[in-house]
Design brief:
With about 180 residues, this protein is an alpha/beta fold. It contains 5 helices and 7 strands, in the order βββααββαβαβα. About 40% of the residues lie in helices and about 20% in strands. Bound molecules: adenosine-5'-diphosphate.
Length: about 180
């Protein structure tokens, strides 16, 4: 696992499955209905069990760029933070701001619960089509800035499914924090 210090916090990159992480919270790349989907969303619901969907049904959805929190049920993580990233159509500032907001709001929600460790997948880079090379800098910049401002979050771990995704994030992190 690659890691760098950001002030008093740690930012980690690894290849793996986010459903297996033992951070206090894991982040779900959900859709606005919060009623389940494919990709990482499907994997999280399968691992957490049906109680997760039952709690999600009570929440009434989530806007793009926002985040909501539930319990983690059968997961190792105590909480799941569900965020909705943008669907990518072309490179433009509004889409980028929504991706930034998905990371930012997830960390803000974590802070309201006093959560100190959070694992993220690469939001929007699956079914939502955001190119990895464009998403990785947004993800890493947003999280890095948040950690500098909020030392209460002690650890953020990016859990990338593929070696290609891990490499994209590693390259960008190397430029951000040489
Ligand atoms: P989105 O709809 O936001 O694009 P997806 O779930 O389709 O969400 O994909 C987001 C990213 O999560 C993709 O890069 C995909 O490879 C990755 N992913 C899928 N399953 C897992 C998993 N179990 N753990 C970590 N990342 C995953």
């Amino acid at each position: 696992m690659e890691e760098v210090k950001i002030e008093s916090s740690v930012l980690q990159l690894m290849q793996g499955d986010i459903t297996e992480q033992d951070t206090e919270a894991i982040v779900n790349a959900a859709n606005r209905s919060l009623l389940g989907g494919g990709g990482v969303d499907g994997a999280i619901h399968r691992a957490a069990g049906p109680e997760l969907l039952a709690e999600c049904r009570t929440l009434g959805g989530c806007e793009t760029g926002d985040a909501v929190i539930t319990r983690g049920y059968r997961l190792k993580a105590r909480y799941v933070i569900h965020t909705v990233g943008p669907v990518y159509r072309s490179a433009n500032p509004a889409t980028e701001r929504l991706l930034e907001s998905a990371y930012q709001r997830s960390l803000e929600v974590a802070r309201t619960k006093g959560i100190r460790s959070v694992a993220f997948p690469s939001i929007s880079t699956g079914a939502y089509g955001y190119p990895l090379e464009e998403a990785a800098p947004v993800a890493l910049r947003t999280v890095t800035e948040f950690l500098r401002a909020h030392p209460g979050i002690e650890r953020v771990r990016f859990v990338l499914r593929s070696s290609t995704a891990l490499r994209s994030f590693e390259e960008v992190l190397g430029q951000l924090a040489p």
